[in-house]
Design goal:
Chain B: Pathway: Glycolipid biosynthesis; glycosylphosphatidylinositol-anchor biosynthesis. The complex is a heterodimer of chains A (518) and B (415). Chain A is an alpha+beta fold and 518 residues long. Chain A folds into three domains: 245 residues, no CATH class; 218 residues, no CATH class; 45 residues. Helices cover 20% and strands 35% of the residues of chain A. In chain A, a hairpin with a 7-residue loop joins strand 11 and strand 12. Chain B has 415 residues and is mainly α. The chains are: A alpha+beta (518), B mainly alpha (415). The interface between A and B is large, with 53 and 67 residues.
């Protein structure tokens, strides 16, 4: 088992080596403004048996949990996903299908608690190249924390439990099983905040601590992120050693923000409105010149990636008409889960929901003229633009009170830019892969993330109140329908009886008249 | 049984003196004027629809038309039309619309080809109108001009024209039903059998017309080959066996055999080509459909409640809701699922009671009443389903033409 703790500060902040003291297996430092990432790497045979059996039968498993509270991210830990619980499952060879499919959902429930999946075949949806995907909302990691304590903290004292408890404040948690190296990597990220630099190593682990910040040396290429700071291996080093490196990163910061909310009144066909701060592609992206319109379109475009729970869905046929899309500031629907039943109510839909990738279309029009910063600032409020994504609600199960509330997570919004020719992206220490949307782009796409800002409150979730059948008042429905139908039937039958009694069922006078004329 | 005292003379047929024809009379005097106007109306809507589609985010074309044309495109590539989600019709419709899938590269020609389905439906409208005119003339013994006046309710109806030019297939249905009625009234049994079989394959519900037509086709009307009415050999009332035997006439058997053969052979052919998805989408879907969206039927809310009650969570809620139900209800009634017996009043009325009472008196009116009952008591009543009534619209006003007590009763039933 190996552990890696990284404090990442912003550009310009750095810590002098003298401010950090390494003492035996403990490192101590001052309060810093940083994001913290903890990564635990566990070999397959160190895992509990049921987990071992499950993972051995897969070709990889990737679980990503993102909290609903908005957080600030720091380069290079920038990759974002809609808040909730995501599972990505590469294709399973048919021979071991049974083992994996039988126990996957049961294991997820055991570890995470309230996971309402019934099996990969029913609840999961497929991504390109046979990968399977699952998503649901999960607000807290408390069940996972309890499970982890039971598994990892036996007889280790309170420090292990305390560290696991701190997960309740984490911004995201990634659990990735790498089948080629047979290791499980658990990565937790805490948001950018003031915190004390402090870590203690455990006898069982090899702990590496890094206190880093982004750096921009002269030799940095546009596609690279530069890092510099201090590295220490606890128990081995007596003082931190300075380090500096750069790597090509697929996740960058677009340095703009967006918010999402439903246009009201919502009705049965709510429209999600995204309000974005900036129309231009990110400054360091391959196409800085907006005047070069053709280039910009082909190299960089804004996208929204939505993971919609099964209560709400997008209609791909509606989103296929160019005129309609243009009126909503959308370019195209680039991907949607197939198939999406357009008619079924929510309670007969077994899948978790659908994933949708929409390309947005910033309106041309006002461009900041020249390079004057002041003029740009004044026109910043004119830079704002909105895109609307029309969605549709499924009928929900009846509920007491006549209303149900559904929650839809914020999408992940980013500018996807095709990297320049010859740029490679070898694996990097902070790489985040298997996010779901990265499977929908070419391997050389760079994602410039737009920061989500909650429209109301602190949560990156939009709520909708949906009218449903009021169960409290539905007692008479069955009897009432029967009575209405019976009344109608009896009335019509009575009228017909009247006709029959008067004239019989024969043709009546007309035919008699014809006969008489013969 | 007194003779109706107020049978109006076919006064409208006595045309005003040719020297001073009113504008309206002269319009209906020549068939060309009416049909040309109807055709021009549809052409105008078609062209307007093309303009609206190209210039507005809100489209004129019906979503169903996009479903049909997508399915036709699949068929043109040799695939099954059921690849298109929500295509729940017979493959013949996709075959009919194959020209819409052709691409020549020339934009104007492509648009014209894509709209060829709408043109087909609009043309079907006109044919249906012509058949309507013939049926009116024959069944009410009115002259052609008067029949055209009533047929104009269908032909010059903007709603009907819009439905066809938007790309809804109900025009084809109208032509089928009117052709069936016309064939029956002309005593052309083979044709009627073919049309009935095809109609049921196309849309299922025309089977309700079978009882009415069969009941109408009695010996007196059809003329048995052995001559007119035979005087009854005895004064006793014939036994029910004899009555049953008398009911099964050769003509009725012919109708039943031909329609059944047509229906079965079409189904077998489609099943052979497209397999189980054909059965699933064209027929079985209508048995298990759970529409409680856009459903105007009285069973709407009951369907919602019942379908949601299957899930455990909702079942608890439903059980809790069932508690306040009145305790005076018999336990059997309380547990009875209303929607599962919905077909009983529906079929009893549309297939048994109405034909029995009315078919011999006035076949078109009876078919209208049947359709009305079928649609009203159906579990699902979307706006498309209610369009089944439209071809019959000219008939209620025509009751005023030759007012009889029977038809007065019919009017009461309609209301």
């Amino acid at each position: 088992m190996r552990e890696r703790i990284t404090y990442v500060q912003k550009l310009g902040d750095s810590l002098a080596p003298s401010a950090v003291t390494v003492d035996g297996g403990t490192i101590r430092g001052p309060e810093v403004h940083a994001a913290r990432e903890d990564r635990l790497t566990i070999a397959l045979d160190e895992l509990p048996p049921e987990l071992r059996a499950l993972l051995r039968s897969t070709q990889g498993l990737h679980i990503r949990w993102v909290g609903t509270v908005a957080y600030e991210a720091v380069s290079p830990l920038l990759a974002r996903l809609p808040p909730g619980f995501h599972v990505l499952f590469p294709p399973i060879p048919s021979i071991v299908d049974d083992i994996a499919s039988g126990s996957l959902c049961a294991t997820l429930v055991k570890i995470f608690g309230d996971i309402s999946c019934s099996g990969p075949a029913e609840s999961f949806t497929s991504l390109p190249e046979g990968r399977l995907q699952y998503y649901q909302q999960l607000d807290s990691l408390s069940h996972f924390i309890q499970y982890a304590k039971d598994q990892l903290c036996r007889g280790s004292g309170s420090s292990c439990a305390a560290r696991l408890d701190s997960l309740s404040k984490a911004a995201s948690l990634d659990i990735s099983y790498d089948a080629s190296q047979q290791v499980l990597r658990i990565t937790a990220l805490w948001p950018y905040q003031r915190q004390l630099v402090h870590a203690t190593s455990d006898a069982r682990l090899r702990t590496e601590v890094g206190i880093l910040s982004t750096d921009q040396p002269q030799t940095l290429e546009p596609h690279e992120v530069g890092i510099s700071g201090l590295l220490t291996v606890l128990g081995q080093d007596s003082k931190p050693s300075p380090t500096m490196f750069a790597f090509a990163s697929r996740h960058r910061d677009a340095e703009s923000s967006f918010s999402a909310q439903f246009l009201s009144p919502t009705g049965l066909h709510p429209t999600l409105q995204l309000r974005l701060d900036s129309r231009k592609p990110p400054a360091l992206s391959p196409s800085p010149d907006v005047e070069d319109a053709d280039d910009a379109d082909s190299r960089c475009a804004p996208y929204a990636y939505l993971t919609l729970p099964r209560t709400i869905f997008a209609d791909k046929y509606q989103l296929s008409d160019p005129l309609f899309l243009a009126s909503k500031n959308l370019t195209a629907l680039r991907y949607t889960t197939q198939p999406v039943d357009l008619e079924a109510p929510e309670y007969v839909t077994p899948q978790w929901g659908s994933a949708v990738l929409v390309q947005l279309s910033p309106p041309s029009g006002l461009q900041p003229r020249g390079k004057q910063k002041q003029k740009q600032k004044q026109e910043q409020h004119l830079e704002q633009w909105t895109a609307e994504i029309p969605l549709h609600l499924r009928y929900l199960a009846p509920a007491p009170g006549g209303y149900s509330t559904i929650r839809v997570p914020y999408p992940a919004v980013f500018w996807a830019c095709e990297a320049d020719e010859g740029v490679e992206f070898p694996p990097s220490p902070f790489e985040k892969a298997h996010l779901g949307y990265d499977a929908l782009f070419s391997p050389r796409t760079v994602f410039w993330h737009v920061e989500p800002r909650p429209a109301e409150g602190r949560l990156l979730v939009s709520s909708l109140t949906v009218p449903v059948l009021d169960v409290d008042k539905a007692g008479w429905v069955s009897a009432g329908t029967a009575a209405a139908v019976l009344a109608g039937f009896v009335w019509v039958a009575w009228k017909l009886l009247g006709v029959y009694l008067r004239d019989g069922y024969g043709a009546g006078r007309k035919v008699e008249g014809e006969k008489k004329r013969q | 049984m007194a003779k109706p005292s107020a049978t109006r003379e076919s006064a409208a047929s006595s045309a005003p003196s040719p020297a001073t024809p009113s504008l309206v009379a002269s319009f209906f005097h020549h068939p060309l004027r009416l049909y040309l106007s109807a055709a021009l109306l549809r052409v105008a809507f078609l062209l307007y629809g093309l303009w609206q589609d190209a210039n507005s985010p809100v489209k004129y074309t019906d979503i169903d038309y996009l479903v049909f044309t997508d399915a036709a495109r699949f068929v043109s590539r040799g695939q099954s039309p059921y690849e298109r989600e929500t295509y729940r019709y017979t493959p013949i419709l996709a075959w009919l619309l194959l020209p819409t899938a052709l691409k020549t590269g020339h934009p104007l020609l492509d648009t014209a080809l894509f709209s060829s389905g709408k043109v087909l439906f609009a043309a079907a409208d006109l044919v249906a109108g012509w058949l309507l005119e013939r049926v009116l003339a024959k069944s009410k013994s009115m002259d052609a001009a008067t029949a055209r006046k009533y047929a104009a309710i269908w032909l010059l109806n903007p709603m009907v024209a819009t439905i066809s030019t938007r790309g809804s297939s109900e025009g084809l249905l109208g032509v089928l039903v009117m052709a069936l009625l016309s064939a029956v009234m002309a005593r052309r049994i083979t044709l009627a059998g073919l049309l009935l079989g095809f109609g049921v394959h196309f849309k299922i519900y025309p089977f309700i017309y079978a009882p009415a037509i069969v009941w109408w086709m009695d010996q007196e009307r059809m003329g048995s080959p052995s001559g007119g009415d035979k005087p009854r050999p005895s004064k006793e009332k014939p036994s029910w066996v004899t009555q049953l035997a008398a009911f099964i006439t050769p003509k009725r058997l012919q109708l039943a055999a031909i329609s059944l053969a047509t229906f079965l052979s079409l189904n077998i052919l489609m099943f052979f080509i497209y397999g189980p998805p054909f059965l699933q989408h064209t027929y079985l879907h209508h048995v298990t459909r759970l529409d409680h969206r856009h459903n105007f039927s009285p069973y709407n809310t009951q369907l919602y409640l019942a379908s949601a009650a299957v899930t455990p969570a909702a079942a608890d809620a439903a059980a809790a809701a069932a508690a306040p139900a009145p305790t005076t209800l018999h336990p059997l009634l309380r547990s009875l699922r209303v929607e599962s017996v919905a077909f009983l009043p529906q079929l009893a009325l549309s297939c048994a009671l109405i034909p029995l009472a009315l078919a011999k008196k006035d076949l078109p009116a009876a078919m209208l009443a049947q359709t009305f009952a079928f649609v009203t008591f159906n579990k699902v009543c979307t706006s498309q389903v209610s369009r089944f009534l439209f071809p019959f619209f000219p008939f209620p006003p025509s009751f005023f033409f030759s007012r009889t007590r029977v038809q007065g009763e019919m009017m009461a039933i309609m209301m």
